[in-house]
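Feature request disguised as a bug: please show the residue count (108) next to 50S ribosomal protein L2 in the output. Example input:
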Amino acid sequence: MGIKVYKPTTNGRRNMTGSDFAEITTSTPEKSLLVSMSKTAGRNNTGRITVRHHGGGHKRKYRMIDFKRTTDNVVAKVATIEYDPNRTANIALIVYANGGCQPYSRAT
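Example output, currently without the count:
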């Protein structure tokens, strides 16, 4: 993972670093692992605004992630490392040798 170092143009940028996203693959995500998300924009089930200043933003799709990693003793390979708009961690597409399911996993 590459580190991008910013030039100190302002006091806030001094000693600031970030990811350069060099390891992220540019291919499209696996469509079978994408689910549409509906935005609530700070509204509850009755439609009233309960949290102010929420809403807007770019449309996002949820990536199905296997947090439990229930597949044991099967050889697996990381096919791609992708960007996930719903969390700060990157995600990895796992391909199993037996041709089983290919869920995303956190790439940490």
